[in-house]
Queue: 2 jobs
Job 1
Amino acid sequence: MIGTRKLLTPLALALLASSGTQAQTSAPPNPAMVQQSQPATRPASPQAPRTIAVNWDQARADARRQGVANNQAAAAVRVAPEMPRPSNSEASEVANTRLPVLVPNMAILSDTPPPSVLLFPRTDFYTLSITGDGLVIEVFGTRLAHAVAPDAVTARQLRATGPDELRVSATEYGQVADFNRYGAAYSVTLECDNPQSDPRCADDVLVRRLARSLIIAAGSPGEGG
């Protein structure tokens, strides 16, 4: 890294931002999280997204413990084989993402051939998509808050988590784990072709393992952060 603001070694950044032969030009839509454009004539909505401050001190401390910051090249080499390698050229823009970019440990998966990995970074959010062998894994992170809890009871319910600080629920196609970290909001979503019979989506074991394996692979507060 150069300076003290980056949370990623040059080697790790190169692995994340490596491009393949087929570039992707747009991120998959996430209507629940991504800000929607509004006509200029509409008044501002109370649910309009606002930027949440990120706890970069805690993120840097965690990155140091993970051994992927402060130019620790040897540590990066050890982590590198287990980091997702996006194949789209747009992944190179991850250096401009202004929240910690969390990625799962790929050693948890045993797909053959290796899964396809795409990374769609933006300034305030990112989506990591991993596809292979009847399974899609999506990791989403954002520092945009789209609504304020209407009362204290709702706020406590939204903060409620299990022992591993995850809010896990079943969906029609699999499992989703939501959590907050460093002031940002994250989710890990699993979707299976056959969710009822595929053990990877039939219960919450894999989604919890993936969520617990997440490491900081990129992200920066930018100038003055």
Job 2
Amino acid sequence: MSVLVTGASGFVGRGLTAALAGRGMSVRPASRQASEGHLAMAPLSTQADWRPLLAGCDAVVHLAARVHHRGERGDAAEALYAEENAAATLALARQSLEQGVRRFVFVSSVKVHGDRSTREKPLREDDPLAPEDAYGRSKLAAERQLFEFGDKTGLEIVVVRPPLVHGPGVGANFRSLMQAVTRGMPLPFGAVDNRRSLVGLDNLCDFLALTLIHPAAPGEAFLVSDGEDVSTARLVRLMGDAVGREARLMPVPKGVLSAGLHAIGRGGMATRLLGDLQVDIGKAQRHLGWVPPVSLFDGLRQVASAPLGAADGSRRA
């Protein structure tokens, strides 16, 4: 199987490229700049010409996306997310079909469901979809357009909705938290009893590889995780175990933490650190027979053993 992987220079893209090659697939990695064997891909837009990259490919895994604001606000940001994450994705799917591609795997996000779940009911694929920001809305628009296009043309569409992805080289807040634990810094999460789903890079890549070949995958959307939901306090303790250093946790009341983070304009961080966001991976298990091959703790040990120097990219969730 020959597979085009877009966004191949990113955190997930590098891991996926290696994972697919390790399974004997012929991988065609594409990123914004040609380097280290990667092919140069055009900026995400409806005008991009993907045909030279698609020729001879059997499948596509579309990872490339606009993930963060770059100074835009309001309607301008909304329009750019819609163009790069939805309209450009459909344009890529159209060209994929024209070039003989059979299967198109789209890496979406749990954020199409919103930013929270309830303790009593983890999110499932058939739950109402209610994204709360421009990124989530653009991913949902892409999903709907792809499924409609697949129904009309026969292109096999698979959608995967990961939560926060962790693994060696992870960036952003996860990296900062691991660094704080490694340095023995006291952290104020001892009283936080939320539940969050995460997915390790190895587990996500294993699942994406399965969706490329499994006959029951097309036409479906899947939530994916490590299958072990943890509180922020529990996650920090596991990080401490992974780095061989007891985590220093202070039992600051959740309400005080939330108020403090909102007061300094970090409401989004408050949601991620203090709120619940659980996903049910039962559909992936039933439909595809998938079991996460790497435990959450083993995944954290991999993060701990990798350099935590310069920040790297990570999937948004």
